[in-house]
Amino acid sequence: MRHYCAVHRHLFQDVYAWAGKVRRIRTGKDGAWFCYPEHIPGQLTTTFGKLKATGFLRGLAAGAFACAGASFLAELNAIHAFREGNGRTQTLFFAMLAEAAGHPMDLRRLQPDAMLDAMIRSFSGDEAALRKVIEGLMA
């Protein structure tokens, strides 16, 4: 969890004074609310605890990695820990996670519209599109 916040801080330290700090305001998009700020620390602890329990997704075959990775990203997106920059932080953090797990990703192949659509679908519990995006990025 600290590394995740550090990625956000690194990306946005020159833009936002609060870069790397969990948001303290409620926010949502298109009528859907993200995790309320009072629950963010606990939800991040739970989500990163699950990730640690899986060995940070190491040792998984490509398909299993994409499936588990989609679930992890969907949870991170629903939490939406920061006021701005969540998508970029999630993508960069996940690319580093994938690299460490033996599944490097080529982010040059990322299609922003497909990723956004996949994230929106995952918010409703449909992680199939997100899994396909991940599979398409794996080198």
Automatic annotation (TrEMBL):
<keyword id="KW-0808">Transferase</keyword>
<dbReference type="InterPro" id="IPR003812">
    <property type="entry name" value="Fido"/>
</dbReference>
<dbReference type="GO" id="GO:0051302">
    <property type="term" value="P:regulation of cell division"/>
</dbReference>
<keyword id="KW-0547">Nucleotide-binding</keyword>
<feature type="domain" description="Fido">
    <location>
        <begin position="1"/>
        <end position="139"/>
    </location>
</feature>
<dbReference type="Pfam" id="PF02661">
    <property type="entry name" value="Fic"/>
</dbReference>
<dbReference type="GO" id="GO:0005524">
    <property type="term" value="F:ATP binding"/>
</dbReference>
<dbReference type="InterPro" id="IPR036597">
    <property type="entry name" value="Fido-like_dom_sf"/>
</dbReference>
<protein>
    <recommendedName>
        <fullName>protein adenylyltransferase</fullName>
        <ecNumber>2.7.7.108</ecNumber>
    </recommendedName>
</protein>
<keyword id="KW-0067">ATP-binding</keyword>
<dbReference type="GO" id="GO:0070733">
    <property type="term" value="F:AMPylase activity"/>
</dbReference>
<keyword id="KW-0548">Nucleotidyltransferase</keyword>
